[in-house]
Amino acid sequence: MYPVIEWKNNQVIMLDQRLLPLEEKMVVHRHYTEVAESIRRMVIRGAPAIGVAAAMGTALGVLNAGKDIHAKFPVIIETLAATRPTAVNLFWALERMERVYQAHKGNPAELADIMIREALAVDREDVEVNRRLGRLGAELLPDGARVLTHCNAGALATAGYGTALGVIRAAVEQGKHIQVVADETRPFLQGSRLTAWELQRDGIPVTLITDSTAGSMMRSGAIDAVIVGADRIARNGDVANKIGTYAVAVLANYHDIPFYVAAPMTTVDPRRLTGQEIPIEERDGDEVRTFRSERAADKTTRVFNPAFDVTPNQLVSAIITEKGVAKGDLSAALEGWLNE
Description:
Layout: E1 5-8, E2 11-15, E3 26-29, H1 32-40, H2 47-64, H3 69-81, H4 88-104, H5 108-138, E4 146-149, H6 164-173, E5 179-183, H7 190-202, E6 206-209, H8 214-219, E7 225-228, E8 232-233, E9 239-242, H9 245-254, E10 259-262, H10 286-289, E11 290-291, E12 294-295, E13 308-311, E14 318-321, E15 324-327, H11 330-338
Helix pairs in contact: 1-2, 1-3, 2-3, 2-4, 2-5, 4-5, 5-6
């Protein structure tokens, strides 16, 4: 459990994940636009954590809006919604906060307190959900399993505990001996900077590899399972996750290694029937041209830098949520849980 994001003294405080593992610095936000900028610039990242940040940013905006709240509220929502397009938890949280606002906007004296309580509920519920899906997913990992993960889907990507790493944590808490292999995850290096840092702090064995090493390790028999998080899951079980996830899924399928996805139901988008409908964020080319401010390619070099890719449901062995573990017909299971 790490101090990823918290509400304190009517401010939103975040751990600046861009600086890890070299520096642990907290960033204080006093205005909703600052929260929006931190989401955009990846001070905070990971779909569930972005959802919590959006909820807290909305509450902060309402708190500071004064008498003009009814005119300002749509701008608050629009500003936060415009930060990152792929992680559906962002939009889920904003819609939840907007429903609360609409239900209580006639009570201006208590509106801010009500919105703050709702944002804190989003934060608290995320940890509870991650613990539940972690326990369910842990049953899929045998004692002694060597597990590959891509990007960071741990406590840092959530309000706490984690999704993919939450499954690993739960398995360790059950007494299983799990070894993790972490892809470095270019170009933002969430695996090397964040996943390795988290697991080392928890005392869980982790080996860091370059992204291009995963296939070789699978071929040699050094990987027993793959588990990743998700930024958005379509109704049919297609999964949008950090760029490179699709390649890992193809490799796992070829080598007959189970490929698991762990995510809360808030990551399932009922409006997207398939992965082809999921918007994919493309980020600044300098994330590829440079490495920690040092130039790795000429500034005129053309770059294609999508932040995510989509893994088709045929390559997914199971989707782990707080509702249960979906195997086989993923769309049927997701449909049933969405309708509960």
